[in-house]
């Protein structure tokens, strides 16, 4: 499980459910699930479809239907129109915390991580 200095990020909900990394520019859907803007955009571009005259896509977590945020805008820009998620504050704080290697901590050591693991 990903940690930053002993803080479980998965348990605290600061990992994007698509890429499983710390959020980058998190965007929030109407169902309240948040994703990295790039992850969300890739999901939308791959999964958007038309229902009558309206374009929609489903949330990859709860499968709630989300309408296009700005009618008339290209599908490739939709993610940028969803509001920034409140999780942004948490990710900005965690970016400044020194990360410990998960595998090393499991063995009782403490080495600085690059991502979630150290270079051995």
TrEMBL record:
Domain of life: Eukaryota
RING-type domain ranges (all copies): 16-62
Pfam entry (one): zf-RING_UBOX
InterPro entries with a match to the protein in the record: TRIM45/56/19-like (IPR047153), Znf-RING_euk (IPR027370), Znf_RING (IPR001841), Znf_RING/FYVE/PHD (IPR013083), Znf_RING_CS (IPR017907)
Keywords: Metal-binding, Zinc, Zinc-finger
Keyword Zinc: yes
GO molecular function: zinc ion binding
Keyword hit for Ligase: no
UniProt-listed PANTHER family: BONUS, ISOFORM C-RELATED, MEIOTIC P26, ISOFORM F
Name used for this protein in its record: RING-type domain-containing protein
């Amino acid at each position: 499980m990903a940690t930053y200095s002993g803080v479980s990020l998965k348990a605290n909900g600061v990992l994007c459910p698509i890429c499983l990394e710390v959020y980058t520019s998190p965007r929030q859907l109407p169902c309240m699930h948040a994703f990295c803007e790039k992850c969300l955009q890739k999901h939308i571009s791959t999964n958007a479809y038309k229902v009558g005259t309206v374009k929609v896509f489903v949330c990859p977590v709860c499968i709630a239907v989300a309408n296009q945020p700005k009618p008339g805008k290209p599908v490739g820009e939709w993610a940028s129109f969803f509001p920034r998620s409140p999780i942004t504050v948490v990710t900005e704080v965690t970016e400044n915390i020194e990360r410990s290697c998960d595998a090393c901590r499991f063995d009782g050591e403490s080495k600085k991580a690059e991502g979630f693991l150290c270079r051995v």
